[in-house]
């Protein structure tokens, strides 16, 4: 049985992985990594919390997970089978940034992340997942292109289907929105390389990602936590800055860029304001 670290390594190297759920239950946990989208075909009973909605699923469903939208999955039945496909946006859309996956009706917030699947549709989709597994293990020179075609086939077939309507809106909107914001904030970290800087840096960035007005997000977060959205963001960036300063040899300019500061001087002023000392004194 492959270890979870093996799956993570493969995803980092190729930006893609597909497997049968019943072969390695632990492998499904990697979907929470912030850069990977997920398509999951499952048969069983489950409860899926997706942003501010909760879906109750029984039978066969097709689920689309966006790494920028927090979600969690509760398995309720004793047997749960199916397939999972994980991929990065760079894998599916190499060199083409004109249309983001986040705008797809299947992946965007408020879209259609869960589809009810008939027996006939399940057999068809099972075949596609099985072909992807076979190609993933093959030595075919152009297997990445072929796998991309299979993923696109699933996406196009899914757009024809009616979304599931078996969901409940969370009763406490402020608490749920705050929970979604806090999880989304945490998903932006750790920063693994100066070449991949922080993308969501301001309350406006998070509000746009969550499809709400900035003022509405801030009111909800402050109501629930007692602190404004900006304070949570600043605290988390400060924590990450300390970690990078103590555990890497990146220079100050690299750290500043990685954490979303236009100039090192802005980063220096930010850290001094947050901690009372200059970044250089926080080095281990």
From TrEMBL:
Alphabetical list of Gene3D superfamilies matching this protein: Homeodomain-like (1.10.10.60)
Transcription listed as a keyword: yes
Annotated source species: Flagellimonas pelagia
GO molecular-function term, one example from the UniProt record: DNA-binding transcription factor activity
SUPFAM superfamilies: Homeodomain-like (SSF46689), Regulatory protein AraC (SSF51215)
InterPro entries: Homeodomain-like_sf, HTH-like, HTH_AraC
Presence of the UniProt keyword Transcription regulation in the record: yes
Domain of life: Bacteria
Protein name: Helix-turn-helix domain-containing protein
Segments forming domain HTH araC/xylS-type: 175-284
Pfam families, per database record: HTH_18 (PF12833)
Keyword line: DNA-binding, Transcription, Transcription regulation
